[in-house]
Write a structure and sequence with these properties.
Strands 4, 5, 6, 7, 8, 9 and 10 form a 7-stranded mixed sheet that branches. This protein has a 3-stranded antiparallel sheet with strand order 1-2-3, with no helix packed on it. It is elongated. The chain has 2 domains: 40 residues, no CATH class; 149 residues, Nucleoside Triphosphate Pyrophosphohydrolase (Alpha-Beta Complex). Strand 4 and strand 5 form a beta hairpin. With 194 residues, the chain is an alpha+beta fold. It is built from 4 helices and 10 strands, in the order βββββαββαβββαα.
Amino acid sequence: MKVKIISKKRLYEGFLNLDSIELKHIKHDGSWSEAMLRLNLKRGEAAAALVYLKDTDSFILVNQFRYACYENGESGWIDEIVAGVFDKNDTAETCAKRECIEETGYVIENLKFVNKIYVSPGITNELITIFIGIGNSNDKKYSGGGVSHEHEDIRIVEYSKKKAYELLKSGYFKDGKTIIALQYFQLYENELTH
C-alpha cells in the first residue's frame, strides 16, 4: 500500500522515542484516506527466550514489576519469559543469550527460533524475536536477578512443565510473548526436546 507522510514530529526522545505522524494511505478500494494522526513508540528490536530445563522438566521464568499492569488495576508483578532490547551490535541470538544470563543466571547455548512478533503494531514498532532456550539445571553459572543499572529487581521462578501448562490454561499469564512461547512449546514439545 502507498503511504504519504504529511508531517512527522518527535514528541519525546529517551530510552523510548515517541513520534507523531500525520499521514494518508491508499485504502483497500484504491482511494486515498483522509489525513490522520498516528503515534509511534519507537523501541527497536528485542529478543526473548523461554528457558526449559530438560533434566528437571521445568521452565525458568522471571517475576518483576511492570507499572503498566499496576496502572491497569493488577498487582504489577507478573511472571514472564526472559527478554531484553538489542544492544548496539546484537543479533537476536546474542541478545537472548545475554538476557538469560542477566535475568536468570543460566548460560543457554541451544536456542530454537519460534517467531518474530510485533508487540502492539497499532502503537509501537517494537519487534521481538522469541526463542525456546533448552538447557539443564547445571547451566546455572551466575546469580541472575537482573542488572542494577537498569533498575531490574527480578525474582527467578521455576515451574514444572505440568504446573506451567495449568497456569497457562487458567489465564494466569498476562504477557503476550510468554503465552506465545508456552503455547509453542506445548504444540512442538516432542520436536523441541528430542
